[in-house]
Structure of (rape) hypothetical protein:
Amino acid sequence: SQNDLKYVVKIEKKLHRLVWNLGQVNKWRPEYEDREEDLLLDNNFCIT
C-alpha cells in the first residue's frame, strides 16, 4: 500500500543519514578540530 511505501522511504532516509554520519566520523582527523562545531551542527541537523 501507499503507507507501506512511505514507511520504507522514511527508514531508508534514516539509514542514509546514519551511514553519512558514520562516514563523517571515519573521516575525522586532528586537523579538522577547528571544524568540530560545524560537524556538531551538521549532526544536529541530520538527527532532526
Q: What stands out?
A: Residues 30 and 36 are 10 Å apart (CA to CA). The mean pLDDT is 70. The first helix runs from residue 2 to 26.
